[in-house]
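pipeline/complex-builder :: batch 7 item 3
reading input block
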Amino acid sequence: MNEFLQIFTLALLSTTVRISVPYILVALGATVSELGGVVNIGLEGLILIGAFCSVLGNYYTGNPWLGVLCAVAGGMFFAWIHAVVCIKFRANQIISGLAINIMAIGVTKFFLKYFFHSSSNSGRISGLPKWNIPFLSGTPVLGDITSSPLILLTILLVFAVFYAVYKTPFGLRLRAVGENPEAADTLGVNVYKMRYAGVLISGALAALGGVWLAYDQHQFTDGMSGGRGYIALTAMIFGKWNPALAALAALFFGFAEAIQIQLQTIGVDLPVQFIQMIPYVLTIVVLAGSLSKSTAPSADGVPYEKE
Amino acid sequence: MKPEEIFAIELSGVTKRFGTIYANKNAELKVKKGEIHALVGENGAGKSTLMKILYGMYRPDTGVIKVNGKAVTLKSPKDAIDLKIGMVHQHFMLVKTLTVAENVVLGEEPVKNGFALDYARAKEETARLIKKFNLILDPDALVSGLSVGEEQRLEILKILYRKADILILDEPTAVLTPQEIKHFFDIIRKLSSEGKTVVLITHKLKEVLAVSGSVTVMRQGATVARMETAGATESSLAQFMVGRPVVFQVAKAMRTKEELERSDTVLSIRDLKAMSPKGHMALNGLSLDIKKGEIFGIAGVEGNGQSELVEIITGLKQPVSGSMNVRGKGINFPCSSPRKMFDAGIAHIPEDRHKKGLILDYSVAENLILGRHREPAFSSPMKMNFPGVDAFAAKMAGDYSIYPPRTDLRAGGMSGGNQQKIVVARELSREPRLLVVSQPTRGVDVGAIEFIHKKIIETRDRGCAVLLISAELSEILSLSDRVGVIYRGQLAGIFGAGEIGEEQLGLLMMGGKQ
């Protein structure tokens, strides 16, 4: 029993934060897109695109912040493809999302070979410079958090997205077009514009998730998104399409994974496969208890057709 | 040009085609500034299409739209709103997950600090308009919890917020009580006296005569008549609409008290209590008896327990307490089910045919046998008997004059009146012992109303007991042998035919005393 208690250390908290950051960013993106009425399962691919573009930008300019900009641009470009296919051409959103995911794998593989002459990983890059905040920088956990611009940005984005969704005209219109686009249309709200905005924002947020992964490992590795886009979608559902709750759900999934890693580190006398199951078992247990009450926006996944 | 000849709205030569079907064919509409103009016509006559063109939702294939004398091109409702045109749609256009105030301000939100939605001002402004026009709504209430009547008032509130000069109202009074309608007419008269122009789309010819200054009649997509209301009568308008003379009150012999006393009780309900989905007491000790061969009408403002009563009788809902007997057999709550009630001979014409009456993506034929698909005529244990289904459907299409008489078409593509006829045909052809009818003629045109009323009376005459729930008081009064008024989950009084008039009913519906 004692060894189980050993895992509740400060390191566990640090790991939780580190793992949760991409989940939170991508879950926020998923929520914004679906509140506007477009299902975006292409987030998995957009993470990959974001990660690759950030490495590319960082590697060739030597400026990690320009890498972040490249990632956001790349993520938004591929999200825009999804948006055009789903909103303008009213194609099936799941199929389009799948296509984005498959395309992202292929595109990143191709350019990895082209730019870095490797089929597995890019060259090394530096991460974002750490910030030194007086008094906090030496402290455990809090020091880690406040010294990382991306973590701070993530926290800021949770509040910003929540505020935008529930406290601004933009958010009201976004939720309206996801719930009843015809009603919004009759009030002069441009349904297509709002939906494009939702999808593009999700692309930017997913790309930031990718930036985190790449900068954390100081390189791009093939397929490094590793299913995080899908976990983020689960967090969105678990969070009932509320950005703040989705972020909390993402934090919870990060926590479950941190426990698993921590248990492996201290070497608990359990088959490793069982330990690796922990996050997923926890996920299922929690979701089973809460999913029934979670309902998607009414027009989520339904293309809007004028006339 | 004399000033009074400037029209607020002038549509001419408007043609709009959907596929091969003309929704509007050379339609015309002229409305003088500050006037209340009625636009009438049967379902499918193209009124709504014409108004959607005026509101920028559809773009006409040909035709000229002039607003205040200037030719305009409307690409979207935004353009119409900019021209101060507002529209209340027949099918409510509300975002259910948002609050009343949020729905009101959507698209024209008050802003503070440059980017934040000013919720305080949104609520204030909403509350002010609610008070001014006595619309009785809570700005903070979620729309998903509103009754149909409240939703209607919210729709009106929305265009008032937009300060529209030209108001298009598509069937605005369908769900209001006579008092509410009177009040509503006061509002639009006031609007008109302030120089606003009102276009009222309606089926109710009485309303046309009561409130409008002039009227345009449409039939099959074209404008067939335009006249001053002063020179029109109900029957002259109806004849333009349908193209033939129409009977308004279907003749029927009312059952006398003695007759009713002698006849068997088909449905007996005692002290029924039930919760609404929102968790308050929707039925609060309701009791009633319905006899064989009578139509029992229930009048009431929506949301006073009607839906719950219908759901319990048809097995869709279980009550909290109380008892119910159908033809002498007690219903075993909470183990009733729609199947058991169906087998007990209860037929149901639901208030919302789209949600509960039809599967819109199924064909007309398939919809005609829904619930009866198990019958040997339509299926064997392993497969459907489509020739049998088709033969039955063809007969129904003939008997109930479903138009077009193509039972292979998708039900969702039929007009409202014909969709309702499908439901009516399916339920009445079963020869039920008890027929539960909710709002049988909502959104249905004059010709079809006459037809549906006739069929309900025929069913009664064959010995079926009928429970009729309608917001349309004239419908309740002209069809029912007895009338009950439902208020807050109880019957506030039961009257024989001819013992009560619309005014009194209306008062009781609002909780007034006899």
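note: The two ends of chain A are 65 Å apart (CA to CA).
queue -> next item
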